[in-house]
Amino acid sequence: MRTQGPWLATVLPVLNEEAHIEACLRSLLDQSLPSGEHMVLVFDGGSSDATREIIRSIQESLNKENDPVLQLYDNPDRFVPHARNLALKHLPESVTHVLEFNGHIEIDSNHLEQLKSVWNRLESAHPNIGGLGCRVIGNEKEQGKIESILDATLKSPLGGSNGQFAIFDEEGPTNVPAFALHLRSALEAVNGWDESFLTSQDSDLSMRMLNAGYKLFRTPEALVKMRRRSSFRSWFLMSHRYGFWRTKVLLKHPQRLVLREFLPLLGLLASTLLLMISANLALIPIIAYGGVLLLSGLAHLKKGISHAVGVPFSLFLLHTGFTLGLIDGCVRKGRASRDRS
């Protein structure tokens, strides 16, 4: 990695993030990595709240000699893949690596140095490395009750996945690095992000990078703290959105298939088929599923009745929303997300 001029650019698409953008940017700017090695590009998709004003205020407070460069651009097409592709056109020549970010995450002060260190170590053994992802955890700072329940849900074996919310403790290869540090030349080699994917654009990108011969890794050494949804409604909408776009990714990249994500759908199909034979038989998978949810609630009883009831309920919403999204993705075109509104 070069150190003359910024070698690293963090790309941050935002839209109406006034509640989190200051903490997000402060964590990104207050890094142990020398300020001259890093720059931040924020792309606003037309925020109607105070997001832009907060960003400008932070810009004005920065010391040009001691702080990283922070730039704010308009993202007229609004969505994340458009912002990231637009960023590739604004990067100075010195930038060799691009880091994915969003407006509701925070990182520790040594995050960028950790990524740099792990990348250099991996690159010595894997010169074709194209991306390095992090482990995503809940942000427990001022965490509300529902956020806490949803965080516990994602830690459950029934609620996690091998994608963005994967729980892992060992460094190694992956198909879907979360909030990844990417090699700029690799991004350009695969023509950046597919703008037809309003969500799951990172999953599609990863598949194309793997197909192009690049290797992708993830490390538990670097943690990203994400704010969870604050309502069950937004949680359900998020689950549906993820299922919907999973179908779109699978239609393009069948190798992205993960069987466990289809278990609720398979259970629904099994219940339907059994119902055609006997109502009593159809109850067997339903009762079994209910029993598993009950056990998941009992496992969280030590956190209180709210978690003992809330986690099974959240799991049910997750499985239902994702399954409906899988089906919906077969028949409808994508549209803007509503689960962060």
Descriptive report:
- By secondary structure, this protein is of the alpha/beta class.
- It has eleven helices and nine strands.
- It has helices spanning 21-29, 51-61, 80-90, 111-125, 145-155, 184-189, 201-211, 232-252, 263-277, 279-298, 305-328, and strands at residues 8-14, 38-44, 69-74, 97-100, 105-107, 129-138, 172-173, 178-183, 215-226.
- Strands 1, 2, 3, 4, 5, 6, 7, 8 and 9 form a nine-stranded mixed β-sheet that branches.
- Helix 2 (51-61) links the parallel strand 2 and strand 3 (69-74).
- Helix 1 runs parallel beside helix 2 (51-61), helix 8 packs parallel to helix 11 and helix 10 (279-298) packs across helix 11.
- The radius of gyration is 21 Å and the shape is globular.
- 40% of the residues are buried.
- The mean pLDDT is 91.
Form type: globular
Structural class: alpha/beta
- Could you list the spans in which at least 5 consecutive residues all have pLDDT below 50? none
**Main sheet summary:** 9 strands, mixed
Q: How would you name the oligomeric state of the polypeptide chains in this document? A: single chain
Proportion of β residues?
15-25%
Number of helices: 11
> How many strand elements?
9
Specify the helix fraction band. Answer: 40-55%
Helices and strands, in order, run as EHEHEHEEHEHEEHHEHHHH
Radius of gyration (Å): 21 Å
Average pLDDT, all residues: 91
Q: What is the terminal separation in angstroms?
A: 39 Å
